[in-house]
Amino acid sequence: MLSxxxxxxxxxxNGSSQYIIPFFQRSYxxxxxxxxxxxxxxxxxxxxxxxxxxxKSEHFIGTIIIKQMLSSQVxxxxxxxxxxxxxxxxxxxxxxxxHDATPEDSxxxxxxxxxxxxxxxxxxxxxxxxxxxxxxxFQSIIQDKNNNEELWNKFKGLKxxxxxxxxxxxxxxxxxxxxxxxxxxxxxxxxxxxxYINVVxxxxxxxxxxxxxxxxxxxxxxxxxxxxxxxxxxxxxKNYLFSxxxxxxxxxxxxxxxxxxxxxxxxxxxxxxxxxxxRRTTVELFLYSYLVIxxxxxxxxxxxxxxxxxxxxxxxxxxxxxxxxxxxxxxKVYEEMPxxxxxxxxxxxxxxxxxxxxxxxxxxxxxxxxxxxxYKEVTNLDERIKILKVLESYISRRTICKLTTKNYNxxxxxxxxxxxxxxxxxxxxxxxxxxxxxxxxxxxPSDKEFKDAFYSKYLINKYSREVLYCIALYELNHxxxxxxxxxxxxxxxxxxxxxxWVKNWKILxxxxxxxVRSGKLLTLGNLTLIxxxxxxxxxxxxxxxxxxKLKDYSTLKQTTDYLAIENWQESEIDKRAxxxxxxxxxxxxx
Length: 590
Hints:
Structural class: alpha/beta
Number of strands: 14
Radius of gyration: 31 Å
Oligomer: single chain
Strand content: 5-15%
Distance between the termini: 64 Å
Shape: globular
Helix content: 40-55%
């Protein structure tokens, strides 16, 4: 390392210095919370300087790490911006907002020198050079290529909360500019513009670390990550893989083409999902699934990058190129798997979507490596759907029978290993394997166990909701129904006999104790789906009143078929459990 020192931002924004963001760096990811925090820091320092006359006050904003490059253009001193691109990009957008807001030409000229410089031929060069999808947006804003005023006019006059809402649909670089333009236009005295700029370039110091040619950039990245800067597994893996000179030429073909091809792709892979109790991005879950397939062993999400490093450490450049190609192929397969908004409204005969809906609602994320491998290897759609039906039945029966999920990590890895050994992966072969299991941790519940569960097992509301939703889809799946799809989000689970039954359901049939009733009303035979939620008075009212309200709140056969019954009690709950089981048996066959 050449040096590490405290520096003002001004030292980075003058002369012919140009900062190149390496191709393997993340895209610009700052949002309103980040922009707001920086703005508050600037206003605090402005007040210290102007109101309190405190010229020594300053606010440290982080670290900037650069590495000098061999310049590719005459009249420019080029540096790789190893860390700090989010801050440097944001500062540039802020300065551009000040530039565009002021009517003073001399101020515009002064600010522009922080954002651009002239090379030896007199050509204007942008001071921070982005890569990938960010490049076009950043250059357009900084060099005003597409009329910043026209862009700003779409937001001018709106309240900040209205601006923030509209920015949800904008590129984040555009969003940063518009956010600060609104702040500058509505909160700043532009007669004092130079003092605000002075705060930015003089009062927001950073720790500046300059690397020499021999410093290991990968080690720097790892160190930054260990200190808490949120570099994702994908970013670390990308840098680790493609920083090697032999692999750099394959970056666009095998990585950028799938993970960073455009904003839609970036948004897709950065979407967050729940994995256990933790939120994970789509790309993390994909990389986890991929590595489990390759290792046929458990992989820890918390140390996923370390697992990849260990997996790759002894591989040759040729093997790493093959690895990059393989990840590319698997990622394209993963993109085709139904997810997210695609699962909001489905019909029974949309088998793939229904499978992913079931595993999402039953919280069975550990099956993803097995499913990804099946999608990759089984190209015949009919056969793949048959396999998904087998897996859906296996998971659903185990869930409804309340069999343990504690071993699911190892269970699905074991099944994955068995499937990989098959000469031909078929539903028949998979079913045969599953039917051989006999332990409580892995067995495929029999029809008797499955039926008994409908009479006696108590599922959490989330799982009951999914079971009843699938049954509702099945009952709509016939030629006399115009719309066979149901939107899942509007449904909630209602107890036909209320949990608080003692208020209005005082008569107990012969042989039924309070304890028996309180247990029976939690079973599937007493649960149904309704649109919305009944208020507490309706929920606990007598059957004569409640069934009228259930008719108003549901048009599903699982509800309406039972509303003519005069006396809803344990025998009726058992009859309904029998009917629901017969449908479930058709959906989830063994």
